[in-house]
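Please review this one:
***
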Amino acid sequence: MALVAYRNLMRAARIAFQGDAPVLAAAQVQIRHEFRQKSSLESSSADSEAAIQHAEDVARILRENVVQGRRAEGQRDTYSEQGRREDAHCLESTVD
Protein backbone atom coordinates (compact mmCIF):
# COMPACT_ATOMS: atom_id res chain seq x y z
CA MET A 1 0.00 0.00 0.00
CA ALA A 2 2.73 2.49 0.89
CA LEU A 3 4.59 1.91 -2.36
CA VAL A 4 1.40 2.50 -4.38
CA ALA A 5 0.70 5.71 -2.44
CA TYR A 6 4.31 6.85 -2.95
CA ARG A 7 4.18 6.25 -6.70
CA ASN A 8 0.80 7.94 -7.05
CA LEU A 9 2.02 10.96 -5.12
CA MET A 10 5.21 11.25 -7.19
CA ARG A 11 3.18 10.93 -10.40
CA ALA A 12 0.69 13.58 -9.25
CA ALA A 13 3.55 15.95 -8.39
CA ARG A 14 5.21 15.33 -11.75
CA ILE A 15 1.97 16.17 -13.58
CA ALA A 16 1.02 19.14 -11.37
CA PHE A 17 4.44 20.79 -11.58
CA GLN A 18 5.27 19.86 -15.17
CA GLY A 19 7.49 22.52 -16.70
CA ASP A 20 8.48 23.97 -13.31
CA ALA A 21 11.69 22.09 -12.52
CA PRO A 22 12.60 23.84 -9.23
CA VAL A 23 9.15 23.30 -7.71
CA LEU A 24 9.00 19.70 -8.95
CA ALA A 25 12.42 18.96 -7.47
CA ALA A 26 11.41 20.49 -4.13
CA ALA A 27 8.18 18.48 -4.10
CA GLN A 28 10.05 15.25 -4.83
CA VAL A 29 12.57 15.94 -2.07
CA GLN A 30 9.73 16.62 0.39
CA ILE A 31 7.84 13.47 -0.63
CA ARG A 32 10.97 11.32 -0.21
CA HIS A 33 11.74 12.93 3.14
CA GLU A 34 8.23 12.32 4.49
CA PHE A 35 8.17 8.68 3.35
CA ARG A 36 11.64 7.98 4.76
CA GLN A 37 10.64 9.58 8.05
CA LYS A 38 7.65 7.24 8.33
CA SER A 39 9.40 4.12 7.01
CA SER A 40 9.86 2.68 10.50
CA LEU A 41 6.12 2.54 11.17
CA GLU A 42 4.54 -0.90 11.52
CA SER A 43 2.72 -1.60 8.25
CA SER A 44 -0.53 -2.57 9.97
CA SER A 45 -0.52 0.26 12.53
CA ALA A 46 -3.05 3.06 12.63
CA ASP A 47 -0.24 5.61 12.17
CA SER A 48 0.90 3.87 9.00
CA GLU A 49 -2.64 3.76 7.61
CA ALA A 50 -3.10 7.45 8.45
CA ALA A 51 0.17 8.34 6.69
CA ILE A 52 -0.86 6.40 3.58
CA GLN A 53 -4.27 8.08 3.58
CA HIS A 54 -2.57 11.47 3.91
CA ALA A 55 -0.34 10.71 0.90
CA GLU A 56 -3.39 9.65 -1.14
CA ASP A 57 -5.22 12.84 -0.14
CA VAL A 58 -2.26 15.03 -1.11
CA ALA A 59 -2.01 13.26 -4.48
CA ARG A 60 -5.72 13.88 -5.08
CA ILE A 61 -5.35 17.57 -4.21
CA LEU A 62 -2.39 17.90 -6.58
CA ARG A 63 -4.36 16.24 -9.39
CA GLU A 64 -7.61 18.13 -8.84
CA ASN A 65 -6.77 21.53 -7.35
CA VAL A 66 -3.34 22.72 -8.45
CA VAL A 67 -3.26 25.03 -11.46
CA GLN A 68 -0.13 26.61 -12.85
CA GLY A 69 -0.13 30.04 -14.38
CA ARG A 70 2.27 32.09 -16.42
CA ARG A 71 2.63 35.84 -16.01
CA ALA A 72 1.16 37.70 -18.98
CA GLU A 73 3.82 39.67 -20.81
CA GLY A 74 3.80 43.36 -20.06
CA GLN A 75 1.03 43.10 -17.46
CA ARG A 76 1.56 43.21 -13.75
CA ASP A 77 -0.37 40.72 -11.60
CA THR A 78 -2.01 39.17 -14.66
CA TYR A 79 -1.58 35.47 -15.31
CA SER A 80 -2.81 33.01 -17.88
CA GLU A 81 -3.58 29.44 -16.96
CA GLN A 82 -1.26 26.78 -18.25
CA GLY A 83 -2.64 23.38 -18.92
CA ARG A 84 -2.61 20.48 -21.23
CA ARG A 85 -5.23 20.27 -23.93
CA GLU A 86 -6.51 16.90 -22.64
CA ASP A 87 -7.19 18.48 -19.23
CA ALA A 88 -9.49 21.15 -20.67
CA HIS A 89 -12.48 18.84 -21.06
CA CYS A 90 -12.22 17.89 -17.38
CA LEU A 91 -12.32 21.54 -16.35
CA GLU A 92 -15.31 22.28 -18.57
CA SER A 93 -17.33 19.41 -17.14
CA THR A 94 -16.68 20.45 -13.54
CA VAL A 95 -17.60 24.09 -14.08
CA ASP A 96 -21.21 23.36 -15.04
Q: What stands out?
A: Residues 2-95 form one domain. The two ends are 35 Å apart (CA to CA). The chain is about 65% helix and 10% strand. The chain has one domain: 2-95.
